[in-house]
């Protein structure tokens, strides 16, 4: 089970863009209005910093996953305790993505299909992938679909270009100011920052090193650029007021494609992009959750057995989230941005990095 | 006598011939009891049977036997009336030196030689047999390939005779690097198999793997190379073929030059090539004789058709059932009016029509020539007109099904096409149940399956996923030949040594 740097690039890219293009945009536009693009630039930079820290940390232990080296850095018990937030985060991510997928599918294509069918089929495919092929299959599938999806995205940007209206972006900065822009950046950065799960993927890379770090940063930068383009397009199409009220603004924008009276409503192709990318994200997260849990209990070899537990648990959690139906703002803002972003993406990697460099220095002396 | 054979074999010693000619002939007659094609010809001088010739009727050159074996024998026996014992060299010397002759002492070997088509000569007073190689079997002439036709390029195809096939290869590859290892498989049929590879180009581990997998085969008979195929495949449960077959020597040769291994089976005009990749199944021989710009263009048309054959019916079903908004309004109107009065839902309609099409195709394959036109007229009339006129099936569905049917024959490799033709049905069901969502999920699962296939250690989707950028110029485009100078990294002898001369001519 090995992946190479190119596959890692596509994996991170697909993990970042699919869900971000659809979900976080509304939250950002609500607070940063027409200056959302500044928020996205800010988020891109912050995302790069977060990724860099995580990659730096991982390249110190290129043959170990986060679970292993956290124990090596902090000692057995502290190391095991400190990774628990990550497990919570991963389960959280999986059920959230699946819930969003379900909402999206129900809203746009299958109006009457019960939730368990949609969730169940998706989890089934993800389970098959992870069980049958592991990380290698995920890497190759990302590599296979990535370029195709890029072509579709570029086509969407091209075909919607005639709806764009430059003055929608004005006035710059005057209406919003620093506070709202930074606040708007939090949502995208909290999702761009998910690249920190590279700490679990690092040891699976064939020759981990400088090239791997470059691929990771490139992937995050590339997805930040795509997201920036996306938000620019949305604002220039609908204006800040309307797009702040749409649930899936990017998707609505694609629906406006109208060319030669024949090419219209390209939305299901964008849905394909989105489905494949959330599939990649789900498989990666499910893989690292099972593998991580197996490592956490000290039985790395039986990670496939753990998967038999993780997949049904995800299903149950998702169904729970769907039945309870908490508001989307609560899930993203109150939990994700307040806890996951500062703790999992910033604090823990930084702490590990600092402690490991102190240990290194102590050792040298 | 039978008891004797069992006792000797029990002791583990090979059964030997006796100096007694009558005994030996009787032993042979017992072995070939009720085998009416075995001929015995006695050579009696003065009432005494001095020698017996045994051969299979129809497998050896009778004229040559008369002229080069029987005549010298009779002359020899006329000259010496004494029964000569144990003088192999002298006896061998009576035949003309160009005749291939060898001496064997074991009964088993005589039997084997006779069955191979050679002529056994048993003589009185000698505990050995001379085996003369005068095999002459009926064979057809080298003909044009039937399943892989080309516009430009060589017209000869492999045929049933193993040696002719190897000669077709050797003719094109005048190099001692071309190795043709021979082995026999099948406990009963004893079929000759040849493993061919280019020493110095191929990875030794690949040859070793092929050899090991072949040797593991335990089977009574190899009737056709497909028998071998299913024994050495990596994933038997996959719908995709993982071993390429070809009847074109030029394709086999270019595969050899690419570092692949070929398996030639006697009595089969199809040569197996391992390992196969998905893309090699989509490359036609003509791609390499046409100008590269046109070849690239045609290749993309082929890719489109190939994937159309998988996707078109299910896309139609998904779009008309679940996502009408995607279809342009005028088209929706015409589809809706065509579907008016059709009692079946689109997915059932599609399933029925696809089913009928596959049935027609299957029946058309086996039709006796005399009834062919009748069935095709009935098929065309029933499917093309009557069902539509009767309002059972809608016109767009007929268009979709016939387009799909044509597209499914755009595959250069027949059994890759069958994989897609079959996968169309579950995909249709997925589209009928979950619409476009079902299609995407099915495609994802299918692509996961395809990227995890690894025939003989080479990823099935290589060089696209996992990507080898140096080799994409034969997948996404067909680059000018001087630019295609790399072996697949998985087939190269050592890492980073995939450079080769621009010599691909497939």
Automatic annotation (TrEMBL), chain A:
It is found in: Membrane. Coiled coil: none annotated. The chain crosses the membrane at residues 7-31, 37-55, 67-93, 113-131, 143-161, 181-204, 216-236, 268-294, 306-324, 336-355. It is a multi-pass membrane protein. The keyword Transmembrane applies. InterPro entries: Spore_GerAB. Pfam families: Spore_permease. It comes from the Bacteria. Keywords: Germination, Membrane, Transmembrane, Transmembrane helix, Transport. Belongs to the amino acid-polyamine-organocation (APC) superfamily. Spore germination protein (SGP) (TC 2.A.3.9) family. This is Endospore germination permease. It comes from Paenibacillus tianjinensis. The lineage of its organism: Bacteria, Bacillati, Bacillota, Bacilli, Bacillales.
Automatic annotation (TrEMBL), chain B:
The keyword Glycosyltransferase does not apply. The chain crosses the membrane at residues 372-393, 399-416, 428-451. Keywords: Membrane, Transmembrane, Transmembrane helix. It holds the Pfam family GerA. The keyword Membrane applies. InterPro entries: Spore_Ger (IPR004995), UPF0353/GerABKA_families (IPR050768). Belongs to the GerABKA family. This is Spore germination protein. It comes from Paenibacillus tianjinensis.
């Amino acid at each position: 089970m090995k992946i190479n740097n190119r596959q890692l690039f596509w994996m991170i890219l697909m993990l970042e863009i699919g869900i971000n293009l659809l979900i976080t945009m509304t939250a950002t536009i609500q607070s940063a209005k027409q200056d959302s693009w500044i928020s996205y630039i800010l988020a891109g930079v912050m995302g790069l910093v977060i990724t860099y820290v995580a990659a730096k940390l991982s390249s110190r232990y290129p043959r170990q996953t986060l679970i292993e080296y956290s124990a090596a850095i902090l000692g057995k018990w502290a190391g095991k305790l400190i990774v628990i937030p990550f497990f919570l985060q991963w389960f959280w991510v999986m059920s959230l993505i699946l819930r969003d997928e379900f909402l999206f599918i129900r809203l746009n294509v299958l109006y009457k299909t019960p939730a368990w069918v949609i969730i169940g089929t998706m989890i089934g495919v993800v389970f098959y992938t992870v069980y049958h092929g592991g990380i290698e299959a995920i890497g190759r599938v990302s590599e296979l679909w990535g370029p195709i999806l890029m072509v579709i995205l570029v086509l969407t940007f091209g075909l919607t270009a005639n709806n764009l209206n430059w003055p929608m972006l004005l006035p710059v900065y005057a209406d919003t100011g620093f506070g709202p822009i930074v606040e708007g950046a939090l949502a995208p950065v909290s999702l761009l920052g998910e690249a920190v799960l590279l700490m679990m993927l690092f040891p699976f890379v064939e020759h981990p090193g400088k090239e791997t770090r470059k691929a990771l940063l490139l992937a995050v930068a590339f997805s930040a650029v795509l997201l920036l383009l996306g938000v620019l397009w949305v604002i220039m199409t609908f204006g800040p007021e309307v797009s702040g009220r749409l649930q899936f603004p990017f998707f609505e924008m694609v629906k406006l494609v109208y060319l030669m009276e024949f090419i219209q409503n390209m939305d299901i192709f964008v849905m394909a992009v989105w489905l494949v990318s959330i599939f990649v994200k789900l498989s990666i997260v499910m893989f690292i959750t099972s593998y991580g849990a197996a490592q956490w209990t000290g039985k790395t070899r039986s990670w496939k057995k753990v998967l038999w537990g993780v997949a049904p648990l995800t299903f149950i959690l998702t169904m729970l989230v769907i039945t309870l139906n908490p508001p989307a703002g609560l899930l993203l803002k109150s939990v994700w941005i307040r806890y996951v972003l500062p703790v999992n993406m910033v604090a823990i990697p930084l702490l590990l990095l600092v402690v490991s460099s102190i240990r290194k220095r102590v050792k040298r002396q | 006598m039978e008891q004797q054979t069992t006792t000797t074999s029990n002791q583990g010693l090979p059964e030997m011939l006796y100096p007694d000619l009558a005994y030996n002939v009787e032993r042979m007659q017992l072995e070939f009891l009720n085998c009416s094609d075995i001929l015995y010809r006695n050579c009696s001088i003065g009432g005494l049977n001095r020698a017996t010739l045994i051969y299979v009727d129809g497998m050896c050159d009778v004229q040559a036997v008369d002229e080069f074996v029987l005549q010298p024998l009779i002359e020899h026996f006329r000259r010496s009336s004494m029964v000569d014992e144990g003088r192999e060299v002298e006896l061998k010397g009576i035949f003309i030196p160009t005749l291939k002759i060898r001496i064997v002492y074991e009964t088993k070997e005589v039997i084997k030689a006779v069955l191979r088509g050679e002529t056994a000569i048993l003589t009185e007073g000698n505990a050995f047999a001379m085996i003369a190689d005068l095999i002459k079997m009926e064979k057809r002439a080298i003909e044009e390939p039937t399943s892989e036709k080309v516009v430009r390029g060589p017209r000869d195809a492999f045929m049933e005779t193993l040696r002719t096939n190897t000669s077709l290869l050797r003719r094109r590859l005048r190099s001692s690097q071309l190795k043709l290892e021979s082995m026999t498989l099948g406990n009963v049929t004893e079929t000759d198999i040849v493993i061919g590879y280019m020493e110095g180009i191929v990875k030794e581990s690949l040859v070793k793997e092929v050899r090991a997998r072949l040797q593991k085969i335990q089977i009574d008979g190899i009737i056709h190379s497909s028998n071998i195929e299913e024994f050495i495949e990596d994933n038997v449960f996959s719908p995709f073929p993982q071993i390429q077959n070809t009847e074109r020597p030029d394709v086999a040769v270019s595969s050899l030059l690419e570092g692949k291994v070929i398996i030639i089976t006697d009595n089969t005009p199809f040569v197996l090539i391992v390992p196969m990749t998905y893309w090699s199944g989509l490359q036609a021989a003509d791609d390499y004789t046409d100008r590269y710009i046109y070849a690239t263009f045609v290749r993309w048309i082929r890719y489109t058709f190939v994937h159309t054959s998988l996707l078109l019916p299910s896309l139609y079903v998904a779009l008309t059932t679940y996502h009408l908004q995607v279809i342009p309004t005028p088209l929706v109107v015409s589809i809706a009016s065509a579907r008016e009065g059709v009692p079946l839902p689109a997915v059932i309609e599609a399933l029925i029509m696809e089913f009928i099409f596959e049935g027609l195709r299957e029946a058309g394959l086996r039709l006796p020539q005399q009834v062919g036109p009748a069935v095709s007229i009935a098929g065309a009339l029933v499917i093309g007109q009557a069902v539509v006129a009767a309002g059972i099936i809608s016109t767009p569905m007929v268009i979709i099904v016939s387009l799909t049917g044509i597209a499914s024959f755009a595959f250069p490799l027949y059994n890759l096409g069958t994989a897609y033709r079959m996968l169309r049905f579950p995909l249709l069901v997925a589209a009928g149940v979950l619409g476009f969502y079902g299609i995407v999920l099915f495609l994802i699962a299918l692509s996961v399956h395809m990227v995890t296939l690894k025939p003989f250690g080479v990823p099935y989707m290589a060089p696209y996923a996992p990507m080898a950028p140096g080799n994409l110029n034969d997948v996404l485009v067909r680059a000018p030949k001087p630019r295609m100078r790399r072996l697949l990294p998985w087939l190269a002898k050592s890492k980073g040594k995939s450079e080769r001369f621009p010599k691909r001519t497939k």
